[in-house]
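note to self: the first set is below, dont mix up w the second
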Amino acid sequence: MKKTGRTIPDFSPKSLRAFVAVASLGSIARAGTLLGRSDSAVSLQVTSLERDLGHQLFDRTGRGLNLTAFGARFLVHAEDILARIDAARRDAGASEAGGILRVGVVQDLVPRIVLMVFDATADAPFKPWIEMTTGTSADLAVALGEERLDLAILARRHEEPGMVTSLPMLWLGSPNLEVRVPLPMVAVTPPCPFFDAARRALGAGGIRDELCFVSANLEAVRLAAAAGAGVLCRTKLAEGPGLVPVGDRLDLPPLPTIGYVIETSRSAGSFAKSVASRLKTDLAIALESLPV
């Protein structure tokens, strides 16, 4: 069968990087400095890409370099192609070194888990590429189920087999926070086991509340609570400057405990499982030794 139409050659990664750099920086000279190439090399690579595409990427009639309408559309594709190339290179490098270890962790535990993961992998016969994801327990559980993580440290409201340990939930707030009705609250974006537990406890105690501040970022929520925006339900792990237990002073109802579990994906290999086992031991010791 006779082929019709123009065939577009394969894109050179060097040309794509030159194009993206020029588009981002607005200057061939600055792009050359970033890429460690001469101005003429960058210019030639962009011109070569335009020739391959059959479209002009930059409008060179005015001052500086501005993307054409086609150039703006193609920039999205170029960035996506380069991101995939970079990911493949990282994967290849990690595979050569021994593999990628994808760890998910709830935000409360990040300061402790980072060092524990390094300790747990220090004696490995190879150097793994560690990719850590933080988020809510709900998000991490989905990622684990979809096998985008090898292991995850999650918070759970109910006791279950394999639980590392549990901690009492606390009402935390600014030392200067006054009693108000309804009770102002701050929380990590729902679904959140801490906020759910707080709402149930308040409801059982006949205390009305209103949610005043939410964020997916725990540190932002902690700062809001420390600034006096409202009460935060977490554990001792969230205490810090300007954020202290306020349950007794505000006469708030008791809260339940929260448990932490470490789970592996269905396809997790022996290395990921051994790291998970080590983390269970180390995390249990660290949490159980927290001052009361």
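second set (the one i keep forgetting abt)
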Amino acid sequence: MRTSTRGSRRMMTLAVVATLTTGLLAGCADDSGDSTPNNGGGNGGGGGGKTALTIGTFGVFGYKQAGLYDEYMKLHPDVSITENVTTKTDVYWPKTITRLQAGSGVDDIQAIEIGNVAEAVQTQADKFVDLGKEVDKSQWLDWKNAQATTKDGKQIGLGTDIGPMAICYRKDLFKEAGLETDRTKLAAEWKGDWSKFVDVGKNYMKKAPSGTKFVDSASSVYNAALGGASERYYDKDGNPIWDKSKGVKAAWNSAMEVATSDMSAKLKQFEKPWDQALANAKFATVACPAWMIGYIQEKSGEAGKGNWDVAAAPTAANWGGAFIGVPTAGKHQKEAIALAKWLTAPEQQAKVFAKQASFPSAPAAYATLKPQAATVEYFSNAPIAEIYAASAKTIPVQYFGVKDQPIGTAIADVGILQVEQKGKTPEQGWDAAKNEIKDVLGQ
């Protein structure tokens, strides 16, 4: 999924890839392996006098899987394309930074994860071509463009996918608990505030089916809630505001309501116990970015078919996404710019969505999105594309900082876990997170 707004464990770097139809989750960075050989953007890997373009990515972006490279090469017989994949994002980005700073060894196109885009914008902008001068920016969501744009207006990357938020829920468990099961009415109950979502959870637990919980974890609620906040860990000038951020405070409070109650299964997402709980219907809801759809379908299996449904989240939120940029040290800038523009155009984003669970950052694609019939049926004929598109269009602009990722990790994997799994008070959990963050920031 290439997600990067999850506050724990390398922003969801995991060994899972799932499509809407087969359960492969688009763009997820794998925990195994390192990378394929890097051609450094030079000629070769094509021969015959062709311009040999290389694109460096992490995980699965879906371009190859959707046949886009082959399509582009057919349209441009003088171009060959090689994708250099590094499966681990925590290996990919340091390696990319080293090559950018050295001015050699870079690919003609380099992918940038949302968790790294602030660092790229603030410290590496001079190493990338200003793509904002090459495109019609209105093709992309404003907030997506803003994340890859410097203070003086230079745009270093074009948006690929995003992770608009919904709530996936087991309507069979909701029915057993005596709760509303209609997706529209349910969304209305928690609309506007994640604390209302928590209130539904309290009601669920009053008559919860034996052995089930309302949510998988308090951290999941925290990250989902923070994904819809305009204030995160940094302000627009790049100053850390994590300790006084309204968004962090609201998300933390919602997470604490969960952590100090009996409504959490206390599981870490994407680990084996979490997968097993999904398969065995042990929790009734999960914060559900678009890329989560395929994962649920795969892990919940045939038994989950028709029992899962999708409702709008309490607030429009984003969890995940990436960009592609063109390094100035690349040997084929003109051709790389043309390819980057083509790969991120609405038509191509729609093709990737049809093959993978990557939700487009180009609104013009939304009217043409067609989830596979099997997926729609699995999720009780929910209007999946419409729900996610509505969220995507209203997500607020969010500012990410250089240490955004480790700050989020400290809060989720230190602070929240202290409360949820070790029985500490919310105050003790926050103090533990605060101490960790101060170490990260060198304070």
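remember for set 2: Residues 268 and 274 are 6 Å apart (CA to CA).
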